[in-house]
Amino acid sequence: MPGKHPRALLHESRPIFEQGSPGRSGASLPALDVPARDPAVDGPAALRRGEAPHLPEVSEVEVTRHFTRLSRWNYAIDLGMYPLGSCTMKYNPKVNERAARMPGFAGLHPAQPEDTLEGALALMWGLERALCEITGFQRATLQPAAGAHGELTGLMMIRAYHQDHGGKARKKIIIPDSAHGTNPASCTLNGFEALGIKTGAGGVIDASAVRAACAAHPGAIAGIMITNPSTLGLFETQIAEITEVVHAAGGLCYMDGANLNALMGKFRPGDAGLDVMHINLHKTFTTPHGGGGPGAGPVAVGAALEPYLPTPMVARDGERLRWDFARPRSIGRVRAGSSNFGMLVRAYAYIREMGGPGLTQATEMAVLNANYIRKKLEDVYPVAFDRPCMHEVVFSDKKLKKETGITTLDVAKRLMDHGFHPPTIYFPLVVPGALMIEPTETEPPEALDELCTALREIAAEAVTDPDKVHSAPHTTGLRRLDETLAARHPRLRWTPKAAE
Fold it and tell me: Among 121, 179, 232, 289, which has the minimal tally of Cβ within 10 Å of its Cβ?
C-alpha cells in the first residue's frame, strides 16, 4: 500500500517457515496414552520417515497474522470488479451457496440407492428441462465437469454418430480462428483434425469460407465448432446459413456455449439448426469455478445426437424419477458419479429465482454494460471491430503503443494501482495487443464509470509520464515480476535457505 515502510513489505513476503522460533507452538496437546512407537503398525522400514517433517514452529498469533496478511493480498469479487470475464470472476448470489450447503444436498453420496435420491433426481430433471428450454434443445447431460469437458463429450457424440451412419472417414472439424482455444484440443483427443478458417472482414465467420472448406474436403467434414458470441464478443450473424452449409456437407454443428450469458431469452441455438452445445454453469448461471469450486459443463443436444448421450440419464416414468442406463448407443459415462452436484444446485436455484424474464434481463444488462464501456473508451483504446458488441468488448493497444510505447501489459499492471484486477489481455490472439473487458450483468454503472475513468487516466498518463506506467504497479505488495522467468523456471516449493 502507499507509504508502507519497505521492512513491512519484506515481513509480509516472508514464508511462514521463516517465521517463529525453534520449539515455539500454538497448540496444546495431551500426553500420549499409547506407546510412541508400535513396531506392529510402523509398516516397512523403507516407508518410514528418517526424521520428523519440517513444519513451521510458530505461535497462534503468528499463524493468524500470517494468513490474515495473505488474505489481504488477494483480490476478490466481494471487494471490487473483475473486468476479466465471468468465467471465474462473476458475482455469485449468496443464496445459491446456502442452497448447495443444505444437508440433504451436501450430504449425498454418489453410490446411494436410487430410492434415496428422489430430491436430487427431481432437481437434476428440473435443471435439464430448464436448460433445454433456454437453449432450444431436446435433452441434456449434466455429467461434464467443465466447459472443455463438455466439448470433449459433444465431439464424442458426433464421432459416435458418424460411426453409426457410415461416416468413419469424416475426420475434419472446421474451427474458426475466433473460437476458444480448447476447441482444437478437443478435436485431437477425439481423433479429429482441426481445419482452421479465418474470421471475415467484419469479425464474424463468413458462410462462403465454410462452404469453400466443405467443398475442398468432400466426404471428410465431420462438423464445425462455433463459439457464439465469439471470443471477439460478436454475434455470428450468418450462423443459420452456416449450419445449413455444414449439414448439406454431411457434418454436424457444435456450438461452444461458454458465452450463453449474452443470448438468454434472445436466441436459442437449437432453433438455428445447431446439433449440440455445452453450457458453462460457472459462467452463465453463477456457480463458482477456478479457486471457488469445481465447474460444470452440461451438454445439450438435438434429436440426431440424443441416443448418444452419456449414461445414466434421469428418466421420468409418470410421477417417478429414476436413473436410465438402458441406452444402447450411449457413449457411456464421461465421469465418475453423476455430476458435480453442488454446481447443479446453485444453477437450479439461480434459474428458479430469476425465471425467464430475469434471465432475459441478465443478458440485456451484460450486453448493455459491455457496450457502455465500449463507447466510453473507444476514442483512446480502439475496438477490434467497430460495431456493437455482445457481452464483452475487445480493445487493442495499437494506438497507445504507436504514440507512447505503452503496451497492453503496461496498462494492465497500472490498473492494479487503481484498485482493479486487470482484464483479460492478449486474447483473443487474432487481435494484436488485445484488451478484453467483460463487465458481466452484475456491475452497477458507478463501478463501470470508475473502471473507465481509471483506464482513461492511464491512457493520459502514458503521454505525460510513460515511465510511471511502464514500471507499474507501484502500490502492491510486490512490484512487477519477471513473468517469463516465472513461467520457464517456476519455484513451486519452499526450500530452506541452508539447502539452497
Answer: 121
Residue 425, classed as helix, strand or coil, is strand
CA distances 135 to 263, 279, 300, 301, 390, Å, are: 9, 9, 8, 9, 17
Angle at 9 between CA 6 and CA 11, to 5 degrees: 110
Decide which of 3.60.15.10, 3.90.1150.10, 1.10.10.10, 3.10.450.10 is the CATH code for 357-487: 3.90.1150.10
In contact, 137 and 301? CB cutoff 8 Å = yes
Q: What is the largest CA-CA distance in the chain?
A: 80
C-alpha span between 27 and 4 (Å, rounded): 32
pLDDT, tens digit, 9 for 90 and up, residues 2-31: 445 444 544 456 889 989 999 999 888 899
CATH, domain range 95-353: 3.40.640.10
Which residues have CB under 8 Å from 361's CB, separation 6+? 265, 354, 441
List pLDDT tens digits, range 151-179. Answer: 999 999 999 999 999 999 999 999 999 88
Residue with grid cell 432437481, as numbered in its chain: 123
Cα separation of 224 and 25, whole Å? Answer: 61
What residues does each domain of the chain span?
95-353, 357-487
